[in-house]
Every structure is written in structure tokens, then in C-alpha cells.
Design goal:
The chain is mostly helical.
Length: about 80
């Protein structure tokens, strides 16, 4: 199992983990329903500021959310471009 299947599944597992991370991080409805009290994620903060029409203040959390989501996407594209070993 360790010598045959693990090396074959390594790239696929990394790609799946990165995709799940990006999708979960940006999922606003589930975050708003399942979050604990007095705990806000970037998506919730950006949404609340935009809802209150404080767009200048909502810009920084929104950009941070985009940048945090961009890093795994870049890693994913590099992972998928590498030839299989």
C-alpha cells in the first residue's frame, strides 16, 4: 500500500485538499449558519461591511479573502503541471 498506492495518490490528494480548502474558505452561507457566536471569518466580515454599505472598509477583508484563496490555486496549478513521477 505504502510503496504502490501512496505515491500514485499523492498528487491527487494534494489537489483535492487544495480545492476543498478554497471552496470551504469562500462558502459564505455555510459559514454564517455554522459559525460560533462572536467569531467571524473574513467572508462574514466582508459581507457585513458590504451589507452596511461601508465599502471602503469592506475592501481590505475582501482583498485578503481573494489573496488567501489565490495562493492554493497557484499551488494547485503548479502541482497539476508537474509530470507524474
Amino acid at each position: 500500500m505504502r510503496r504502490v498506492h501512496a505515491p500514485l495518490l499523492q498528487r491527487t490528494t494534494i489537489a483535492a485538499a487544495l480545492l476543498v480548502f478554497v471552496d470551504v474558505m469562500k462558502e459564505l452561507p455555510a459559514t454564517m449558519v455554522l459559525r460560533p457566536f462572536n467569531s467571524d471569518t473574513l467572508a462574514v466580515v466582508a459581507y457585513q461591511l458590504a451589507r452596511d454599505e461601508r465599502l471602503g472598509e469592506a475592501a481590505l477583508p475582501s482583498l485578503a479573502l481573494v489573496l488567501v484563496g489565490l495562493i492554493p490555486v497557484i499551488l494547485l496549478s503548479r502541482t497539476l503541471r508537474q509530470p507524474a513521477a
